[in-house]
């Protein structure tokens, strides 16, 4: 009995230490593993927020179908190593694994090997992100820092600050400008 209690105690501590939101794995949504291992060599110091420029999704099954479509396009048409973004966030408040924490993604030329891209499913020039979507993205970033995938000194930027795109859309960009570690002036990270 006592040893069972100790085990439960240890398990609870482990869960608290990682503090990560549930992440739907590539296996879960039917994605493929990257063709080649191209891993980050240490903690990453830039977080890029983007949007997928697709309709929004509010149901798990719809989100998964859309993500498989994005993967098909990235891998079959653009010949990326894997689905381009590191994570995707559905309007249902779920985080989906793309290239993930340790694989270098393909999303922002010149920055891929030093950044994690988190892409909100939808088009936020027109749509508004849901509260759950905002919350899960912030939890994911916190989880990245606590597990040392992200530097504690990471900088957060909008996709549009780095390349010619409206992504993540004006409605989402307005919101992320108030997030922790948002970087308005890029001179310190420019290539
Ligand atoms: C990223 O790639 C560039 C160009 O190949 C290289 O100069 C740079 O050192 C790389 N950065 C990291 C963090 O690996």
Could you characterize the architecture of this molecule?
The chain is of the alpha/beta class and 191 residues long. The protein has one domain (21-188): Peptidoglycan recognition protein-like (Lysozyme-like), CATH 3.40.80.10. The chain is built from five helices and six strands, in the order H-E-H-E-H-E-E-E-H-E-H. A six-stranded mixed β-sheet has the order 1-4-3-5-2-6. The N and C termini lie far apart (58 Å). The model has no long low-confidence stretch (mean pLDDT 92). Residues 41, 113-114 line the site of 2-acetamido-2-deoxy-beta-D-glucopyranose. 2-acetamido-2-deoxy-beta-D-glucopyranose binds at residues 41, 113-114.
Can you give keywords for this protein?
Lysozyme-like, 5 helices, 16% strand, 191 residues, alpha/beta, 32% helix, binds 2-acetamido-2-deoxy-beta-D-glucopyranose, single chain, 6-stranded mixed sheet, globular
What is the structure about, briefly put?
The protein has five helices and six strands, in the order αβαβαβββαβα.
